[in-house]
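Researcher: Let's continue the batch. This sequence belongs to RNA pseudouridylate synthase, and it's 317 residues. Same format as the previous ones, please.
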Amino acid sequence: MRRKTKAPPAPLPQRLGIDPVRLRLPVDRKWATVRDHLVDRLPVPASVIDAMLGEGAVVGTGGPIAPDAPYAPGAFLWYHRDFPDEVPVPFPITVLHRDENLVVADKPHFMAMSPRGQHITQSALARLRRELDLPTLSPAHRLDRLTAGLAMFVIRPEHRAAYQGLFQERQVRKEYEAVAPYDPALDLPRTVSSRIVKEHGVLTAQEVPGPPNSESRIELAETRGALGRYRLTPVTGRTHQLRVHMCGLGVPILSDPLYPEILPDTALDDFRSPLQLLARSLEFTDPVTGEQHRFRSRRALESWPAPSGGPADRVAA
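Model: Same format as before. Here are the structure tokens for RNA pseudouridylate synthase:
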């Protein structure tokens, strides 16, 4: 078995909180020059690659790669990608907790957790790296771009596996809050289990026959007229799990653009209808310090503002 070669530290600094792209030249194929490989490998015109090499923008462990540098099997290269034009997310990301190991932030709706697709420098990770001057920051878990609430990040690279393992091994108690239609005929609380599959490139996840791979506890916390505020406790963490389970119960979460039907794409600068789903709390034992942590979001869902004097129609026990 071939031993995996550990990548050396990047010789390029981050740009706007984003790491440089890293490439490793294949060892089982050979080109005459590094340029020839990059022309084959990168989805950009050869003229762009020539400009990058001419400017010294492609860097190896020994410094900038010359335009005529011979191919070196197994060598590592780094360069900075061109970022897409992004619409700034016009909401702050609030830090609720910071110690030597962790940052816990209150993420707004519409902000991606990590760089992806059209959301790169405006992601929560990139913004926190810049605002807190923490270039080694990394996410401990996933949170949908459209979902607001608690997002946890790891400061030290040597602790990433420990904190990410908490989520992978289901040792974090997560509680969400959602606003959805109120159905008096729906028997709650209940535990929903189903098999959820999401195919790459398909926007929505589907419930399919087969052994369950997802489980959510659904409780009605409060009602106001035709709306209910729900407390959702996921046991597993499948993509769109809570949204799929609520839709399957006939009470889809308000302002969901995918469930029960896919709505027309909205402009990236349209922040008018946030998904009414909030990651409300996280509770776990710190794997590094042994401390008991419980964090709670300070955000409120706009479809369920704080009462202005009148009580809710009914508060569930």
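Researcher: Any comment?
Model: The longest strand covers residues 214-224.
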